[in-house]
Amino acid sequence: MQHSELKNLKIAVVGAGYGGAAAAKALSLLGAQVDVYEQAHRIREVGAGIGLRPATMNRFRQWGVFEAIAKVSSPSEYFEILTATGEPIMKEAWPADGAQRHTHLIHRGDFIEALLGVLPEGMVHLGHRLEGVRDLGERSVLTFAGGRTVEADLVVGADGIKSVVRQQLFSDKGPVFSGEHAYRAVISVDDAHGMVTDDNLRMYIGRGTKVYLLPLRHRGQVSFDITALCPDGAWNPEVTKDDVLATVEGFDERLIAITRGLDMAGVNVRAVYDIDPVETWHSDSVVLVGDAAHSMLHHQGQGANSAIEDAGALADALREASSVREALARYQAVRKPETDKLQAISRQGWSAEEIEDVFPGQKPADAAPKE
After folding, report:
1. CB atoms closer than 10 angstroms to residue 35
2. What is the per-residue pLDDT across 246-267, written as a single tens digit (0 to 9) for each?
3. Which of 26, 198, 335, 364 is the most exposed place for a label (fewest CB within 10 A)?
4. Strands (E) located in the chain
């Protein structure tokens, strides 16, 4: 689209999470008028650490926000997968993207705060809970709780796994329970019992449980995550310390000690859900990004990265296409095949037998770790 057309484009982004904030930044750089509508009255991202891949960091460099992200993250050289008791299964350097070779480990809260911090003041409108969306062709209308309506030339649905935009326009299928729980906490490096001595992500697997140690050196902390099989599909299940300890039975004694030392008041407990692939992500003037389009299990660590890539691809498509409708079709054609694959592979387990499928070409358990 011509610069004059982009400059006159009014865009409403629903949701101020990773995908929404990234889309707002990328689209505002086109010159469009962008407003973000977030249902929360205060932005508060709980949970733990994530890894931002080199391709994602390249997008931040392109948008001029690399330094803001780098300031609150730690560069990592590789990730390692080990058995429950610490025998090596696989060690792999993070895949490079051009000159960018490091994955940056960051706390979710620092990440969303940094992203929102680079948006112009007044762009994000809190306390807006979406109730309805109508696509009228060349424009769409949003209706929020309390009766406020907003018209836009393009609506970007970045409203997460329970997306109202997706449910009303694209798919009425609900989230799918994985049969797992995630228990996430951030602890001091001093409480990691000597298991964290560098900036690299490690995952220990055994008996249906995965334990992640993700260093956050810039904070002097470690993200400690346990993903374990459990049939309770309640969104916010109630668990005890004993319940969590049972998931790491037979693991390295140091991992058991870390678990025993957790303050349950500071542990984020969630049932793990994703969604089935959505056939169509866009109409004439509405499009989905991030979890709203392709929420996936966290086993590949690609949820946030995919949302950032969506934002970049959507901005690219608007710049290259001759109309909004054409841009949305182009964006879906670029991104959906990738996220369909990631959704499928993220549903695979992480037993030693399955690692060959998840990471083709790698040798499981009995092979020496790759240097």
Report:
1. 17
2. 999 999 999 999 999 999 999 9
3. 198
4. 10-14, 33-37, 49-52, 73-76, 78-83, 88-93, 103-107, 124-125, 130-135, 140-144, 149-152, 154-157, 176-188, 201-206, 209-216, 221-229, 268-274, 286-288
